[in-house]
């Protein structure tokens, strides 16, 4: 501990120094008999306690006190005023300007030690609090960094789960896209054939027109009639009436196929987006469900029928990707449960409805259900009843966090083992 004693009387400095040296604390004492030197000494040393005389020439103790307290770095330095004054105004000025205590002169040993020990204790407590504050500040910084790391980890886990889900869906989505692409290819081939026929007929029509308009030779009416008969005969051979009638239907089928592929791709894009929190917009929950069903359509057709019971619900403020991921995860979970029974006749019912200021979605499947002893574990990260390596165990956990943490919603599950499982999530409508 470092102590500064300021007094223009060297005798008082000696007495104060002797008393401090006798105190049971380890300290370094610096004596100063010139108040004008105090500022320099304060800058050069980190003092813990200052003993300061009030009555001094050139610069009195109160002015020195003001000078010290003007620097916030010295706020916690204990300052004890040495004084022979007894008037209340002097004490009032000292305390108003930041003095912590006083010691009467002539200095008495009992009073000196009592007040000096109190100052030492206060200073030690102040240093301890400062150290604790710095430690808490560092811990807070570390916690912020840890929280950021956890958020980054969660984000990457979500993306990993999405990629895993997309990988599982790839074959089914490819099949869904290949179907319309297949008949698009067939239609293009047919249209190519039709175009060749139409080109042949157009050539015949143009030849006829050229003959009629020719000025170099005279065309007999009989020749024109023969040309027309030949054209009609070619129209029959090329089945031109059939071609014209079919073109419209082929184009309509092809347009439907392109639109279907476009919807599937758009659904995948919505699902595969990053899902940052600020990507909020007004969305139709029923449409988001339709997109998820479209992506899963191939698996649904081979495992279960799906029944949609859409209620009249308001549009919701949400991140389309996040809510799509929740729905996709829940439907996939139902499909996997039904598939585990080696069944092809499963049933999944999806219902939407409004409850007070909440939009709700209920997904029910007739799979094997969930045993009561694990029902309270299914939202735990990495929990899975599947074989090791066959599932990440974070799908339901992430879905639960999205609804409950990000949207202040509710996420519940009910199950009757051997009969059915019902997942229900609710979240506020929200406003932009």
Automatic annotation (TrEMBL):
UniProt EC number: 2.7.13.3
Top-rank lineage group of the source organism: Bacteria
Listed InterPro entries: CheY-like_superfamily (IPR011006), HATPase_C_sf (IPR036890), HATPase_dom (IPR003594), HisK_dim/P_dom (IPR003661), HisK_dim/P_sf (IPR036097), Sig_transdc_His_kin-like_C (IPR004358), Sig_transdc_resp-reg_receiver (IPR001789)
Catalytic activity: ATP + protein L-histidine = ADP + protein N-phospho-L-histidine
Record-linked Gene3D superfamilies: 1.10.287.130, 3.40.50.2300, Histidine kinase-like ATPase, C-terminal domain
Domain Histidine kinase/HSP90-like ATPase: 318-431
Swiss-Prot/TrEMBL keywords: ATP-binding, Kinase, Nucleotide-binding, Phosphoprotein, Transferase, Two-component regulatory system
SUPFAM superfamilies associated with the record: ATPase domain of HSP90 chaperone/DNA topoisomerase II/histidine kinase, CheY-like, Homodimeric domain of signal transducing histidine kinase
Record-annotated Response regulatory domain positions: 1-116
Classification via PANTHER family: C4-DICARBOXYLATE TRANSPORT SENSOR PROTEIN DCTB (PTHR43065:SF46), SENSOR HISTIDINE KINASE (PTHR43065)
Role summary: May play the central regulatory role in sporulation. It may be an element of the effector pathway responsible for the activation of sporulation genes in response to nutritional stress. Spo0A may act in concert with spo0H (a sigma factor) to control the expression of some genes that are critical to the sporulation process.
Protein name stated in the entry: Stage 0 sporulation protein A homolog
Species per Swiss-Prot/TrEMBL record: Clostridium gelidum
């Amino acid at each position: 501990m470092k102590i500064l004693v300021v007094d223009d009387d060297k005798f008082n400095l000696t007495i104060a120094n002797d008393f401090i040296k006798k105190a049971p604390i380890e300290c370094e004492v610096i004596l100063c008999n010139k108040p004008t030197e105090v500022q320099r000494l304060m800058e050069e040393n980190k003092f813990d306690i200052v003993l300061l005389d009030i009555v001094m020439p050139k610069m009195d103790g109160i002015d020195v006190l003001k000078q010290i307290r003007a620097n916030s770095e010295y706020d916690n330095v204990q300052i004890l005023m040495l004084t022979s004054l007894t008037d209340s105004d002097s004490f009032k000025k000292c305390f108003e300007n930041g003095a912590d205590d006083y010691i009467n002169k002539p200095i008495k040993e009992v009073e000196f030690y009592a007040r000096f020990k109190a100052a030492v204790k206060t200073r030690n407590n102040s240093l301890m609090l400062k150290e604790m504050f710095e430690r808490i500040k560092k811990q807070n910084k570390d916690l912020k960094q840890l929280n950021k790391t956890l958020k980054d980890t969660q984000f990457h886990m979500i993306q990993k789960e999405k990629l895993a889900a997309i990988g599982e869906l790839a074959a089914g989505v490819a099949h869904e896209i290949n179907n319309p692409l297949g008949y698009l290819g067939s239609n293009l081939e047919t249209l190519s054939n039709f175009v060749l026929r139409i080109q042949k007929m157009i050539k015949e029509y143009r030849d006829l027109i050229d003959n009629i308009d020719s000025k170099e030779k005279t065309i007999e009416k009989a020749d024109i009639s023969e040309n027309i008969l030949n054209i009609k005969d070619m129209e029959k051979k090329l089945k031109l009436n059939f071609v014209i009638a079919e073109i419209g239907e082929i184009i309509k089928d092809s347009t439907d196929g392109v639109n279907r592929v476009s919807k599937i791709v758009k659904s995948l894009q919505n699902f595969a987006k990053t899902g940052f929190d600020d990507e909020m917009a007004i969305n139709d929950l029923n449409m988001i469900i339709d997109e998820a069903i479209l992506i899963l359509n191939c698996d649904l057709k081979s495992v279960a029928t799906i029944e949609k019971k859409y209620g009249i619900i308001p549009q919701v403020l949400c991140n389309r990707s996040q809510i799509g991921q929740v729905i996709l995860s829940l439907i996939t979970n139902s499909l996997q449960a039904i598939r585990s029974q080696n069944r092809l006749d499963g049933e999944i019912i999806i219902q939407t409805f409004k409850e007070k200021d909440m939009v709700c979605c209920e997904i029910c499947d007739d799979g094997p259900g969930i045993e009561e002893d694990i029902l309270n574990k299914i939202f735990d990260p990495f929990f899975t009843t599947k074989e090791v390596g066959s599932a990440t165990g974070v799908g339901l956990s992430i879905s639960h966090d999205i609804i409950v943490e990000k949207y202040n919603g509710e996420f519940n599950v009910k199950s009757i083992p051997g009969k059915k499982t019902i997942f229900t999530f609710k979240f506020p409508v929200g406003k932009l």
